[in-house]
User: What shape does this take?
Amino acid sequence: MIGIDWGTSRLRAYLLDGVGAVRERRGSDAGIASLGGAGFDAALAPLLAGWPEHAPMLMCGMIGSRQGVLEAPYLACPADPAALARALVPVTIAGRRAHIVPGLSCDPPDVMRGEETLILGAGITDGLACLPGSHSKWVRLRQGIITGFHTYLTGELFAAIVHHTIVGRLMDSDDPADWSGFFDQGVDAARAPGAALTAQLFMVRAAGLLGRLPVRGMRPFASGLLIGHEISGEAPAGTVTLIGEDGLMARYARALDSFRVAHETAGAEPAPAGLFTLARAAGLLG
Amino acid sequence: MIGIDWGTSRLRAYLLDGVGAVRERRGSDAGIASLGGAGFDAALAPLLAGWPEHAPMLMCGMIGSRQGVLEAPYLACPADPAALARALVPVTIAGRRAHIVPGLSCDPPDVMRGEETLILGAGITDGLACLPGSHSKWVRLRQGIITGFHTYLTGELFAAIVHHTIVGRLMDSDDPADWSGFFDQGVDAARAPGAALTAQLFMVRAAGLLGRLPVRGMRPFASGLLIGHEISGEAPAGTVTLIGEDGLMARYARALDSFRVAHETAGAEPAPAGLFTLARAAGLLG
Assistant: This one.
């Protein structure tokens, strides 16, 4: 089969064998955001060149959003792999028949697209999973059922603060050597009882102006603040399973240590295994 | 005397008589942000045309910042009008001799420039004053002494969210008729115990996507969230005195009502009275 993980910024294609092992992987920067609602066929076709024409194809991620090739309605939580498999949406793309994995919704109002497939591929069936990113997801599971989740605007808000507020104007270039200590200080500030995020964000600027925080420490401190407030808001109990990109997971692991919350890391690249599991559950593999 | 209130976005000049009454007011859009560190003389001179050449002149606001004509060092809180008067910084500008009111600093690290003069001009000597804006200030006073303050990035963060995150992308145009109800819902959401701002901001988008919140309600809901989190963070006891622009004060008054916090409104345009009081205390009026 062919598995497609088509997100906001990246397009990834996998050719999988009969037991779900990756035989070949291809990718491009043709994410949904860069396409602007058109050119899906042209973006995908070159990645499929030479792959079996009639192989079942399953796609997850923002390709099923309003900005994608076809909007796949959200499936409401609680939802398990069987419910996701029943809700796949057929589509024709790049001259091939394919299906799209629907996103999930829950209450209080929240949505995801793609993360449900990553969690499934990571083999998580119980507990709390955290997928850090522009829109960090904290997902609760019980016996293979996704029971609910919360999304935090952490990554995107950090970028908006750095690039579009006075707090970012003083900030220095991003020196990795300076991250850890100032990042930890930000996490600690967020852990303080009654900590108000919007006041602490201005404090980052004031501390820089007054020489209480070196200018090179402002960016990691602000990152620690936002991630700390995210963890405070979630107040995780039990072990958290981190899924995502290494650098970001390292920051979250460090922040979880400050909160004395146990954590473990899922294997890399869970998308193909998730897509394979759903394709099999939907009977697409014949 | 001549009083100058020179802030980030506006330049205001007042000609005051011997008892501090405003005889004439002039203004322009030559705020500090628009000047980029130069052209102060050229921006100010036309506003002073025809005013007495040797009148004492006192300036407050961002004109005394690093981006202004001369950086006036912050005076540390607690600070009273006499201490501010002793800390005025002499400067020559537009061919005239003048003084700059220093900003205030406090601990945990925070800074203000200009608000100290507005509070003084509003005649507040005890209790809690709130100056809503891009950087909302909550200022504590006791017997005429500013004992400390907190700044919230509320207004600037709201603009960054609306214009530079996915939350703002769905938002409709700003229809004043729709403000009150959705704004109140946002304030109420912020009041909930354990409310996490960054999760609630993503919820605004999800609620819009899922049809739980009309698209026209997203902007006022987000405004209510941010102002609600500001008030939650400050947890004001006693009566709050609001100082500022009418439209914004009305929103804060509405949010304070939701929190059942008493409030009153200071008179409009407190800057000239504050500048007059400081000029007199500094002996500039002869």
